[in-house]
Amino acid sequence: MQINSDVVITKIFEECKTIAVVGLSSDPIRPSHSVSRYMQQQGYRIIPVNPNETKVLGEKAYATLAEIPDEIDLVDIFRRSDEAGQHVDEAIQMGARAVWLQEDVIDEAAARRALDAGLDVVMDRCILKEHIKRRR
User: Fold this and answer.
1) Which of 10, 39, 53, 61 has its CA 20 to 30 A from that of 26?
2) Which domains does the chain have, with CATH numbers?
């Protein structure tokens, strides 16, 4: 599959219902909060991953992806590009089906590792904007 292809993005929205959001903040003005709240309102289960939070959007927060006891379909990454790769590697290890690197989060090597491991990959795109585009 191709990174950022319409087929991959549509498949993620249809099949990935549990989303771990790395870098999710409880601060309502942060993009991670508003984007995750929107996805939650669309029926997706959001699991916050942030060592500085205990609960966000009514869900228990975890310090790392590895601590999440539930199966995760999609790992959505709101971190700097230079920190994204470690989270992609964690997503591969935990058996996630897909990774989504938000706008301005770019790590070509990490994206390649995820593709090679069989994950669907979206990079440098906003999940909210892509979801809204497909609702029309």
Assistant:
1) 10
2) 6-135 (3.40.50.720)
